[in-house]
Amino acid sequence: MIMTHFFQLDMLSWLFVGLILLGTIPNVIYSRGYLAHIERKGHYRLHYIAFVLSMLGVVVAGNALSFLLFWELMSLTSWQLILTEALDDPEQVTPAARFYFFMTHFGFVFLLLFFLIVSHGDFEMSFTQMHGVAGAFPYATLLFFFLLLGFLSKAGAVPLHVWLPYAHPAAPSPVSALMSGVMLKVAIYGMFRFLFDVLYPWPLEWGILILVLGALSALVGVLYALSEHDIKALLANHSIENIGIILIGFGMGMIFDTLKLPTLSSFAFIAALFHTFNHMSFKSLLFMGAGSVLHETHTKNIEAYGGLIKQMPVTALTFLLASISISALPPTNGFLSEWMIFQSMLGSSHIDNMSLKLAIPFAIFALALTGGLAIACFVKAFGITFLGLHRSANAHHAREVNGWMRTGMVLMAGVVVGLMLLAPWFIARFDAALVRLGHPGIYAEIFPDTVFNLHSVAVHGGVVSPQILLAVLLGVTGFLYYGYRALKVKERLHRTWACGYRTGARTQYSATGFAGPIRRFFDWLYRPEEHLHSAPHPEGEHLRAPRHYSVHVRPLFETALYTRTARLANGISYWIYRLAHFEQTRYAAMIFNLMLTVLFSYRIFAHTFSWATFILESVVMLISIKILIIGEKR
Amino acid sequence: MILYLLTLTILLLIAPLLLGLIKALKMRILFKRPASIWQGYRDTAKLLHKETVLSDEASAITRIGPFLVLAPLLVALLFLPPAAEHAYYINVVDAFTLTGLLSLSTFFLMLIGLDSGSSFGGIGASREAFIAALVEPAMVLTIFSVSMMAGDLGVAKAGLNLAHHFPTHHMASFLFAGISFFILLLAENGRIPVDNPETHLELTMVHEAMILDLSGIYLAIIETAASIKFVIFASLFVSLFLPFGLQFSPVLALAIFVGKLLLVAVVVALVEVNTAKLRLFKVPNLLGVAIVFAFLSLITYYVLGA
What is the pTM (predicted TM-score) of this model? Predict the structure, then answer.
């Protein structure tokens, strides 16, 4: 048998191959240093390599068979990688891995359904052939939802994001970096590949849905990140935020494409691709930094860190660079892609549809608020971790990590800087990928005069120049700094002046305290559970006993969607169990009803739909349920 | 080009004067004996002669941070709208970049606050983060709305366009944006309804709390940065919302420009005297007003026709 189209390598695939390699190479070096920390080295190495290869396989897959094969392989190997440290911490790691396993297969089912429909069961069909089949299928929106459920459960967009804050902290840090930085992007690749190649003409609603999901994910991600004390869960929540930002760009691209504004559409898609790359770079770097801190302090609790910049300067500085980039502060790469997404949203003034035009400012608002909160969150993450006094003995004993890990982090910092300085080169590649996907190339419009000025393609659009901004900023800072040095001012060290009080590790602001005002403002969302334990002092009630305050934020989506669904499913299964075991006549009646349902639904789907028969059949169903199953109230 | 450099020099030099003027005016209105309006310069001169005392806990962030606080503001200064017609300007910065530069400066200021390990620094940084996060959306929306009325997203060109074609057809959106921007001016510069720049009382301070452990030149740099931030906002306000008098001869235009800056300072002083400082958790209401006005401005602009 000849495997036709098993692999295909076009510009989009090359782009993501590049992304995976850029994300993996520093990671491999970092892993080399981290390996001492891991007990099951063979298990780790084997799955690590298989994981990377399977990700590469997904992005070069040429038909449904190879795509699903590598996709599943990627899920399974990453699941095993999460389980690497299961022996050390079974209570936390095993449930997280199980949750991830469940979520990823939940998505896989929908991908499988999607491929079964668009390929008529012939999994060796190429993607372009699938386009014809999908075009003939009458319920295109159903296919779109299958894709969304399949890919967004992997990418971690609201409301399918709940596994990220569990799975990423449980995995070893290089794996978290790889999963968050690279694997989520493979899902974005899937969105690009199948929305363009298979489902191409998009109704307007699809784009709007993705835009709304993106804006929601961005806000939800950053808000939960702010209330998080576990540094890796904090970063995982930021992955949700950044996937949201990518989806905002993606959704804008789809909307512009439907509205026949191809230049703006290309611009938005380029912005989304650029942010995909940027998020890969800074998120990998942040996870590596968090991994180094974790490696040295043996705790994930951000409240136990503090003052690490003195012992771990390389980790601290690379973490700072990534923090600035993820907070979208100029002139970093994270800023550039968010700038492009903003500019594409401002192109919304070209839209004629008034209600849509009025809705876009809300997305702008969401993105701007996300940016503001991300700054707050990374001041917290960097400031509490690396600045101030050591908050625990663990932080006191921390030393700079070994050379391999440092090299990995510095290389990844190089990728961040490279994406910033070589932005035009990368944008040219993104442009070429979009040309391959049938969009107009707009490189010449983005860089009309020189490669130093990045222009927006909207009418009267803005201009930005990362290189010039960086040069000016560095120049001015350098001038000021050396000016100060030249003055040879006398410097003296003295203990921190805190209005006459002594400072101590316990009186510093904690991460909980830092996010306090924001947590209080978003009280309606967080609904925090606050606990204040104050035991009476044994020697008299006027003496102060140590008090313990803790605040815990329960994720709203998880309780509303997942816990309650689980409870509902449990309730129903208990009811059916009772029927099956104690009331067998009713159980038989229920089976009869189920068969009726199947037959009726088959009739509705296979034949032309008419409301009259639908209502008639529903009434029959309801009556039979009422009489046969529920029966009379006792 | 000469005019451009001259404007820059004037903005740099006038910065401490504006804050001094606000202070003196407030004291005068409250029947106190006013401080000299030149006090800002004297303070800076005094600080420049002092030795630098650093905290034992201070890391590289405190040593480099002040320069990184000042540098983005100086860079932002380069891209402001011109004060006179035919003056040179650089139109490569739009609202988002400008907001980004200001945030970059605030980012390092907050890190300095956390660096010394004092709880006051933490208080200030935490509050500043809270306020800055809410200011960001209003700022972006407002400047974009104005840029759309001006027909150019570049801030410098927008200022010039507004001077040429005052948006008489969009007065409503223009006014809404103006109100929103003025609230942001107060919030971002830590003026009274949001922060009280004169107290050192832990319950109220935001900006002062973060810089409690700086001294000497570092303190001078941060104080300069604060005054430059005010000048940036004031000059944006007058260029975008009071775009008059650019067409006169350069000297007269510059004089009018400075006059308008002083006017903004006077208005801020009047607002400060007549309002009480808001409780921290009431500040979002004020910023909410700014956000709503920014939205209204964009929406009326869209609905009433572009």
Answer: 0.92
